[in-house]
Prior knowledge:
The structure holds two protein chains of two kinds. In chain A, 31% of the residues lie in helices and 33% in strands. Chain A has helices spanning 19-30, 45-56; strands at residues 8-11, 36-42, 60-67, 70-76. The two termini of chain A are 18 Å apart. Chain B contains nine helices and eleven strands. Chain B has helices spanning 6-11, 39-49, 72-81, 111-122, 171-175, 200-204, 242-259, 266-273, 275-282; strands spanning 14-16, 22-26, 55-56, 62-68, 97-98, 134-137, 151-161, 181-184, 187-190, 210-221, 233-239. Chain B starts with 5 loop residues before the first helix and ends with a helix.
Amino acid sequence: MNEIKADEKLDLRGVVCPINFVKTKLKLEEMNKGQILEVLIDEGEPIKNVPRSVKEEGHEIIGVKRIEGAFRLLIRKV
Amino acid sequence: MAEYNIKELKAGGFMKQKEKDLFSVRLRCAGGYVRSDQLPKLAEIANKYGRGHMHLTTRQGIEIPYVHFNDFDKVKKELSKVGLEVGACGPRVRTVTACQGGICSHGLIDAQAIGKKVDKKFFGRGGLPQKFKIGITGCPNACVKPLENDFGVMGKIEKNFNEELCNYCGLCAEVCPVKAITVNGEKLLYEEAKCIGCAECVLVCPTGAWEKKQDGYAVYVGGKMGKFPALGQKVFDFVPSEDKLFETVEKTLEFYRKEGKKGERFRETLDRVGIDYFKEKIK
Lengths: 78, 283
């Protein structure tokens, strides 16, 4: 997934549910179809909730990478 | 003054108060479901026949206290105008409780819909040694506390793993509450025996490698609170259909009616005759 270049980035570490998802959703709304958003989200509740909600909105999660205490998600806007 | 029989009144959901001739009227609100058009009528009844307030019960119901027994028929008639009726007390099946599993983001079954069906079939069923409570919860988060019920139902799923779709991202392992999944490099280890069917892995999986096969119900029996609390014990890990679930309730009630001694809660019956004997009988 390192080769994929993100068009936009959001660092949501330290941002609680469901604000982290709302911020992700709003950012995706600004973006164009097919563009890639990179988000950093905390482990625990956030990693449980955000990917699931992103999926429910119909977007694609094309990359997941663990970094210290958090995850880097790559989301393709559908 | 009209004569009344307390035992009969209790069967119909009228709870005698400390105050002479006054009763708290218990309503049948299966799954805690009350329509907004019913509430004004309840307010009207509470104002007219009670003292202008209501009580929300621990089993998702509503009671209207301070109703005089002379007004029972009038209250019943008023309630029926908005499709409501009084609940149950005494040795019979009580109003069924249910969470909002159909709309809750964690819900795996439509607990409201199933709760209403179970209530319709079994509410008020008598001839039992003691009260019998049924609770339906939508997922292993168990908000309705099925293990505190004589018969508790919990929604869960069975799933498939499609290895060819897996990219070993590790999200499933991260979110699994019972650590049934381990991802190590390009290897995923799944210990099925640990799985509680909560579907967190299915919901989080970005590629569809984890996929729901079917939903169903885990069944727990013998839970109770009161002076001698005990948690329900699992008797079925996965009941795959509604019909099978209803059949299980039916058989359980039949067993309790036959095997239970008067005044004995279902848990006490189970402890006396042994849960294995029960399992054997309802198979």
